[in-house]
Write a structure and sequence with these properties.
387 residues, alpha+beta, five-stranded parallel β-sheet, 14 helices, 20 strands
Length: 387
Amino acid sequence: MILTPDVLIVGGGPAGLAAAEVASAAGASVLLTEQKPSVGRKFLMAGKSGLNLTKDESADQIVSACGAPWLAPILRDFDADAMRAWAAGLGQEVFTGSSGRVFPVAMKASPLLRAWLARLAPVDIMVRWRWLGQDDGTHRFDTPRGAVAVRPRASVLAMGGASWSRLGSDGLWVERMGDLAIAPFRPANMGFDVDWSPHMARFSGTPVKDVALIHGDTRRQGEFVISKTGVEGSLIYAMSSLLRDAPDAALDLAPGRDGAALEQAIAKPRGKQSMSNHLRKVTGLPPVKLALLREAGPLGDAPAIAARIKACPLRLIRPRPMDEAISVAGGIKAGELDEGLMLTAYLGTFAAGEMLDWEAPTGGYLLTACIATGRHAGAAAARWARR
């Protein structure tokens, strides 16, 4: 038996669900397949700590953050305002935090996903269907009921990148589309290993707040977390694309303090106090920052300590494994796609989300771009199917 929907969507993440929503709304019969037991698994994982939907920035700022000018028309068509309106249409009120990040008031992904799936009621959703590739427009699947073939009028591939494979993004599709130009996947929005000394073990899980990360001429303020193996968290993720290729970095542990004033305070007589107590009192640095200060080597005199506080070396060794990364860089190169995100080597087959060659930092950019490209591909697939 060969199934013949108007549009086949392969992948049940945000990009695939967005493609299915738009194609179905255009009147197409839609079959969506997902290799895992349920859809939206990575979406739900992202919402565990507060679902960051988008960033309150202009379309051009979002395009710049995504580092893929070729996606500019798509991201301008579905920008931050459109993302907010979309969430509101699903009954999810949103708010904008002080950093410009936009979240649902519920701060969870599950209510939004339930409302989204209710809207997708006309879509046939099949789970535990593993995509094995396509030949001449016929897509082959391994399913609980055995082999299944699907020959749609159009299809959208939204199988993700190569991180968090247990949630579905295993990157195995690359082997089944080897005739395409595909930029190798690299981890993005990830932590880094650091060769901590034993005394840092007690700080594992401790946040380092109000700090600036310095990489060359780039300086960004925020916070991160000490992990058992190194560092992770929003500030590290935001600069991960720079650190991945050139891991030389430093920390300003007191971004609101002047170096000369710190030196003057540190030079005060400490009497019988230990150096740690003296530094804690005159600098106000918490124990975790003092530990980072000592981790960089012997402290030296007051000018040397003040200089280190303002530029404390952070010796990153390597990125954490790609499967731990929030997202990936790399994917199908722009030259393989037309303006509708159709693969020119596979007429009628479109691609979206993290399968494409782009990279976005956390902060709402990633989810916005996945949904924007999914909607764009879904609309183009529906138009192709009508032809």
